[in-house]
Amino acid sequence: MNEPLLIKPNLIIPDHLVGEVQSKLAYVDELITRALVAPSGDQIEVYILHPVSQSEAHQLEEKVQRVVETMAKGAFKPKVQVLEDQMDIPVPYRQDPMMELQQRGEISQEAAGIYALGPLVTRLIEYFEEHFIDLADSFDATRYRFPTLIPAEYLERVNYFQSFPHSLTFTTHLRQDVDAIDHFAQHA
Q1: Biggest alpha carbon distance in the chain?
Q2: With contact defined as beta carbons under 8 Å apart, do 19 and 44 qualify?
Q3: Alpha helices in 73-109 (DSSP H)
Q4: Is the dihedral of CA 77, 79, 83, 88 positive or negative?
Q5: What CA–CA distance (Å, rounded) separates 147 from 142?
Q6: Residue 36, Ramachandran bin (φ over 0: left; ψ between -120 and 50: alpha; else beta)
Q7: Average of per-residue pLDDT values in the chain
Q8: DSSP of 62-76
Q9: pLDDT, average across residues 82-108
Q10: Alpha-carbon gap, residue 116 to 105, rounded angstroms
Q11: Are the C-beta atoms of 31 and 49 separated by less than 8 Å?
């Protein structure tokens, strides 16, 4: 693995934002394979897919600085009220289960960020869905089903495009025109 690119952020990252900034750094550039923010918020290690030129390293650093400044500038620590604490319950398995689930065929990656789920994970999801439904029923909650896709106008109303552009996935269809459809089919 290449040596990490060490970056001293222009703004110290507040401790309550360290994890969130670290997770957002995955969206800075496709060359970045991993980024680690020091708990003190004063240093970032960026691991890169392959060695880069001085100019490319400078561009990566500028992008990282831009993300950090956007997130840290004017940030305030939210008031947190813990209603129940279960942190003292022992947890026997402390590793990320993803690798094991993939080896067992319980999860398979179809594309970046897209996974097929096997029977074990599917049963786990169903288990929690049943418990949430039972909980909702105990409150006589009315059930609704909403579309998977959300109209762009709704997302615009809540500033989703500005707040979460890294999480956007667009779905569209071809115009209802046989010439356009045929052209797409022949040239796609």
Answers
A1: 64
A2: no
A3: 98-103
A4: positive
A5: 17
A6: beta
A7: 91
A8: HHHHHHHHHHHTT--
A9: 91
A10: 10
A11: yes
